[in-house]
Write a structure and sequence with these properties.
Helix content is 33%, strand content 19%. By secondary structure, the protein is of the alpha/beta class.
């Protein structure tokens, strides 16, 4: 059954970690995106915070990815899937893994749902809410094959750097959910944030980090990224593998 129009609006008022790593904001939805939410959300989406639209859980309260995707397969967590172009393209090229996309903003969720439906993808599910909250509460240690953090909010003002997603405590949390050999892949077009990503991942003793590298071929260029490239913004990736 379609969700009520305000079913997604509660995220900003629910308890999160003391400092959010994203701006909780609202934006209008086009008719097509409203229809995507109404028609596709019941089958492909879940809420991190809303008990009326929960995710399936195992007996110990962890996210049941087998029930969610309908199969047992390696899982890739996308934190902040944006408008969904990258998630949909990577999932289409990688059918043997399941993509768990987490996004806080409705236009991006609706866009990704539409892309998944148009491409006939069966290996993508979309969560609404705070990805770190889901990781803490409901993702078991060693349960992820990869974590993708592409173009997170750079929080450019110095006083806001503490809100950045890629910082030691968050990296430690995400690394703990990776299997041995699993990867944490980050990308940004903010040079100072790229340096922070490089340094934080290199400092984790349980990760083997690439340092700053060019975009690998398997990560598509998003429209957002291309706009930055057209303006001369440098883009850097950092890929770290869990070694113990």
């Amino acid at each position: 059954m379609p969700l009520p129009s305000d079913a997604f609006r509660h995220v900003a008022s629910r308890p999160h970690e003391p400092l959010r790593t994203f701006h909780p904001r609202r934006a209008p939805l086009s008719r097509d995106r409203e229809e995507s939410l109404a028609n596709l959300w019941p089958r492909l989406g879940f809420s991190v915070h809303d008990a009326e639209h929960p995710f399936p859980t195992t007996s110990d309260g962890m996210l049941d990815t087998v029930a969610l995707f309908g199969r047992a397969a390696p899982v890739v967590l996308e934190i902040g899937s944006g408008m969904g172009e990258t998630t949909a393209a990577m999932a289409a090229a990688d059918p043997d893994r399941d993509y768990l996309a987490l996004e806080a903003h409705l236009p991006g969720i609706a866009s990704l749902l539409g892309l998944v439906d148009a491409a006939g993808l069966t290996n993508v599910r979309v969560g609404h809410g705070d990805a770190l909250d889901l990781v803490r509460r409901a993702l078991a240690p060693g349960s992820l094959d990869a974590v993708h953090v592409f173009f997170p909010d750079p929080w450019p003002k110095s006083r806001h750097h503490k809100r950045r997603l890629v910082q030691p405590a968050h990296v430690e949390l995400l690394r703990s959910r990776l299997r041995l050999g699993g990867t944490l892949h980050c990308a940004t077009d903010w040079p100072q944030y790229a340096e922070q990503m490089r340094d934080v991942l290199a400092a984790d003793p349980d990760l083997d980090s690439s340092g700053l590298v060019d975009r690998p071929a398997h990560r598509p260029v998003t429209k957002f990224e291309q706009r930055g490239l057209d303006l001369g913004h440098p883009v850097h990736d950092v890929i770290a593998r869990r070694i113990r």
